[in-house]
Write the C-alpha cells for this entry.
Amino acid sequence: MGKLFGTDGIRGVVNAGLDADLAYKVGLAAATVLAKDKGGRPLVTIGKDTRISGDLLKGSLISGLCTAGADVLDLGTLPTPGVAWVTVDEEADAGIVISASHNPFEHNGIKIFNGQGFKLSDELEEKIEDIVLFGSNNVPMKTGGDIGKVSYVAPKASEDYIDHLEATIDSTLGGLRILVDCANGAASATAARLFDRFSKLRTDVINADPDGVNINDRCGSTHMDALAAMVKAGGYDMGIAFDGDADRCLAVDELGNLIDGDQIMAACGLDMKNKGLLPGSTVVATVMSNLGLHIFARENGMELECTDVGDRNVLERMVEKGYRLGGEQSGHMIFLDHATTGDGQLTALQLLALLKESGKKASEVFGACPRYPQVLINIPVADNDVKKAAMASPLLAQAVQREEDALAGEGRVLVRPSGTEALMRVMVEAKTQPQAQEAAQRLADLIPEL
C-alpha cells in the first residue's frame, strides 16, 4: 500500500483526512498521468454512491480533472461495477468511483479504474500519488479550448448498465419471490429497475430511500439479521443484500440462514464446472475463506486457489491464470465472463438463475457447503506504523503458532492488518464456536500490548 492508496483506493473520513483539496489534487494528478500515458486528452467517467459527501468530492475531482485538460462523463449515482462497465462501454480512459463501500456514511473514498474496467495498476497509482504529495503545484493549468468539459449522461448510462446485467442470464426467474435490501446505497438507483425487467419475478425492495446519512445504517450486507427475519416471516424464496456501492452481494435462504460468499462460490462454481464453464475446475478465493469451502471443493472435484485478502488480489490471479470465477467470503464475487470487478447485482442474478434452474429450495442449493465456526475480532490501532510493528512482532508470531498447534489441524488462525481501516483483524476457525472464540480473544488481547 502507498501513502494514499490502500487496497481499495483512497479512504477516509470526509474533512478529517479526505477533503475537497485532496480530491482536487487527485483529479489534477489523475488527468496528468492519464494524458501522458495516452499521449492525448483523456476521457474519464465518474460516479458515486449516496453519501452526503459525494457531491462535495465529485465537484472537486471534476474541477481537478478539467483543470488538467480531461473530459468527464458524469454518471451520477451508480454502483461501482456500473462505473467500471460504463468506462469500458464508452471507451473512456479511466473511471472514478466516489464511495467507501460498506463503511459508515461519514467515510468516503476515491477508487480509479483503467480503460479496461480493472482497478488502476500500482504503477499508475504511485505516479498519481507522487504528484498529489509532491508535485501538484507544478502541474500546468490548461487554458482556452484545452480546458476539460463535462457531459451529464446519468440516465442513459444506468439504463445501458441495466441492459447489460439483464442479458447475463437466460431465465425469466418466473415463480420466485425475493426481498432485496439496497442498503440505502447505490443499488437504490438501479436494483428495482433491474428486477422489474423480469416480469414473472416477484420482488419487494427495502432500504432504497437514501438521505445521505443512512447508507449501510443497520441494513445491507453488513447487517443481515433484519432481512433474514423478514424473509422467513414473509415466505420469500430468497433475500438479497447489497453494500453501499453494490459491489458485494450476500443472501439469505427461505429459512433465514445466511448465504455467504463461500457458499455462493461453492454453488456457482459447481454449476459452472458441471456445464464445462469453469477452466481448470478452479475457483479463486482468499485466505479468509472458510474451511468448509475447501472441504466442499475437494469433495466435488474442484480446485481452490487462495490469495491474500482483497478482490484486487483475487482478480489478478484470475486474469493471470485464465480462471472465470472468484471472490471473497464477504460477498465480492467476480464472474469474469460478465464483469471486470465484483458486482452485487450481477451476482444476485446468477444466484436466482441457479436457484430457478435447480427446482430446489435455496437452503438445499447453497447449504450444501458447510461452514466451520469462525470468529473475527477487529482491534483498533492508531495507524499503519502500528500495523507494521504488530505484524513484525516475534511475540505475535509465537502466539499464533501456539494457537495453531492447539487446533491440531482442525482449524485455522489468521492475523492481518486491514487494508482500508485502522484495524488489525484476528480470525480463528475451529470445530466449535467456544474454541474459536477463546483462541481469537487471546490473540486480540495481545495485540494492544505489542
The radius of gyration is 22 Å. The mean pLDDT is 95. The longest strand covers residues 107-114.
